[in-house]
C-alpha cells in the first residue's frame, strides 16, 4: 500500500504518525504519478481531485496507471444535480468517461457543503492551535479554499463516487 500527497509536510507527518510498517509514502502530483502504466488495482482519493487544474489531464493519468478493471473511489465537490444528469454534465465525470472509466455510483454525503463549512468554522475558531500544529501555509490554504467555495454555497455538494476502468476499450 502506498499513500501519496503533493505536500512533503503532510507526507512527513504521516510517516511519523502511522503504525503500519507496510505503508509506503510518496510525495506525488496526481497529474504526474510516479507509477508504471497499468500498475494499480485500487486507488482512493479523498478531498484531492477537486484541486486538479485540468480534469482531462488528471483522468488520462489515472487511466494510464490503473489496470484494466481497476477500481477507484473519490470524494469531490460537484454541482448538485440528480445522479443521471451529474454523469453527463460534471466536468470530472465527463473526463473520466472519455478516458475509459465507467462511473459506478454516487453518494451525496454533504448536501450543499453544510458540513464542510462547519469544518472551516472550527478551523477558524481554533486557528492558533491549528497554525501551531499544521503550519501557517496549510491554514492559509484551507481558508482560501473556504473563501473560494463560499461563492458556490447552496449549489455544490460533497459526493463520494466509485469508478472502474473498462477492461476492453470500446
UniProtKB/TrEMBL annotation:
Keywords: Transferase. SUPFAM superfamilies: S-adenosyl-L-methionine-dependent methyltransferases (SSF53335). The keyword NAD does not apply. The keyword Transmembrane helix does not apply. It holds the Pfam family Methyltransf_11. Residues 2-74 form the Methyltransferase type domain. PANTHER family: GERANYL DIPHOSPHATE 2-C-METHYLTRANSFERASE, ZGC:194242. This is Methyltransferase type 11 domain-containing protein. It comes from Rouxiella silvae.
